[in-house]
Write a structure and sequence with these properties.
The protein is mainly alpha-helical. The protein is 65% helix and 0% strand. Among the domains are: 53 residues, Arc Repressor Mutant, subunit A, CATH 1.10.10; 52 residues, Arc Repressor Mutant, subunit A (Orthogonal Bundle), CATH 1.10.10. Helix 4 packs across helix 6 and helix 5 packs antiparallel against helix 6. The longest helix has 14 residues.
Length: 151
């Protein structure tokens, strides 16, 4: 006898038990198993009302998971890709601004260990940091503090 398929509600709870999800993410995961979009929306509304589904908690978890490797630009892009609203993303990312230079320095140190010796190395290191989502003004400040790299 084949195993009974779990209900849509059980699937949603199983996903939320593993980690926080945004409404958008959970809707995408449930959609293939639902009979209608209305059914998914009703479950998501119920979970939000009960406090089981929270965009704020999901955004905080995403930021926490990425903060040691990426800058605010990259994290904002990841949040938007996961369906976090612009307002929630802005609120969560506001806390990162003061520590952005230190985060860039930590990411830079793990990768390069020494200041750039020439323009080509500086360009390579700058591209790396830009790709990781750090702003150009933070990168300029980082390279200006070249004497601080020995800490």
């Amino acid at each position: 006898m084949p195993a009974k398929e779990p209900s849509l509600r059980a699937r949603a709870l199983r996903h939320l038990a593993r980690r926080e999800h945004t409404r958008h993410e959970l809707a995408l995961k449930l959609a293939p198993h639902a009979e209608s979009e209305t059914e998914v929306a009703q479950i998501l509304d119920d979970f939000t009302q009960r406090g089981w589904l929270s965009e704020q908690r999901a955004a905080e978890q995403i930021v926490h998971a990425r903060i040691r490797r990426y800058g605010p630009v990259r994290i904002r892009r990841d949040l938007e890709a996961k369906g976090v609203s612009v307002e929630a993303a802005t609120a969560v990312l506001a806390t990162l601004k003061e520590g952005e230079l230190e985060a860039a320095r930590a990411v830079w140190k793990r990768k390069f260990h020494a200041p750039p010796a020439n323009a080509a190395e500086r360009a390579k290191q700058t591209r790396f940091l830009l790709g990781r989502g750090f702003g150009s003004e933070v990168i300029v400040k980082l390279f200006r503090g070249v004497g601080d790299f020995d800490e």
